[in-house]
Design goal:
The two termini are 31 Å apart. Strands 1, 2, 3, 4, 7, 10, 12, 16, 19 and 20 form a ten-stranded mixed β-sheet that branches. Strands 11-17-14-15 form a four-stranded antiparallel β-sheet, with no helix packed on it. Strand 5 and strand 6 form a beta hairpin. The chain has one domain: q2cbj1_9rhob like domain (Jelly Rolls, Sandwich), CATH 2.60.120.620. The relative contact order is 0.23. The protein has 267 residues and is an alpha+beta fold. It contains five helices and 20 strands.
């Protein structure tokens, strides 16, 4: 954690009653680093999603790249990235993932509910992004009980050309917490973005970096709470601490702001 005299007043996590237009603008411009909305969805909706997922067959991201193992239900495009390109296998996985979510028998679409909540004050609808005219995945449920390594997410750097059929000018990460541990599970965000020298700290074959990549960078830690939604800039290095006790399960997807003012999501 940086010293008080080193504090950047714009590197802060804001708590709000809903995602407002100004919050998204502040995230995009760097006037804040994260926005938290407690009670983002009703307790009943949260319980319905969690109840369905507790009986669902979670699998793991490829452990050669993601270690410690992270369980997930649904498909993420990162598992289908091949030398900066989205592999054809992604589309079959998206189709099977959509069916798996339908098979849960929920009375509503949880990802649509989240998109509507994000875009309540936004001038345009928040929609699932497209690549080559095909709709991307809506999102995943993740269970990182052993944590996530220090890393960043940036479609501009991870994929060749445009990931979506749009020019993105900002990127956010969205999480909705359905179950939280008794201890641990915090999301830690550092005021540090990737630079070429950081590759010296990359873990071999991994998505992650050694923790000293962020060295003495200013940081904050956000403890998850059931029903809370978090929107933050994942181009800042971030990590999830290991959990103790109950399972840590959250819905998640990426959000991109296009040069046309659209908010586009993908999983």
């Amino acid at each position: 954690m940086g010293n008080a005299c080193d504090h950047d007043p714009y590197f802060t996590a804001v708590t709000a009653s809903e995602f407002q237009r100004r919050h998204i603008a502040d995230l995009a411009s760097g006037r804040c680093a994260a926005v938290r909305v407690p009670d983002f969805i009703s307790a009943g909706a949260c319980a319905e999603i969690l109840g369905a997922l507790l009986g669902a067959p979670f699998d793991a991201y490829g452990t050669a790249r993601v270690y410690p193992p992270v369980l997930r239900f649904g498909v993420g495009v990162s598992d289908h990235r091949r030398e900066g390109v989205v592999a054809d296998s992604y589309w079959a996985a998206v189709d099977s993932g959509r069916q798996a979510w339908r098979d849960l028998g929920l009375s509503f679409d949880p990802f649509l509910l989240c998109r509507e909540g994000i875009g309540r004050e936004w001038p345009n609808k928040v929609e699932i992004g497209r690549r080559g005219g095909r709709e991307m995945g809506a999102g995943v449920a993740r269970e990182p009980n052993q944590g996530f390594q220090v890393h960043f997410d940036d479609a501009l750097r991870e994929f060749t050309g445009n990931l979506l059929d749009a020019n993105l000018v900002a990127q956010f990460a969205f999480n909705l917490y359905l179950s939280v541990p008794e201890q641990g599970g915090e999301t830690v965000v550092w005021r540090h973005r990737w630079s070429p020298a950081d590759e010296l700290y990359r873990l071999p074959g991994s998505y992650g970096y050694r923790s000293d990549v962020v060295d003495a960078a200013e940081s904050f830690a956000l403890r998850p709470r059931v029903g809370e939604a978090l929107l933050f800039d994942p181009r800042n290095y971030h990590a999830v601490l290991p959990s103790q006790g109950a399972r840590r399960i959250a819905l998640g997807f990426a959000v991109g702001l296009s040069d046309n003012g659209e908010l586009l999501t993908w999983g």
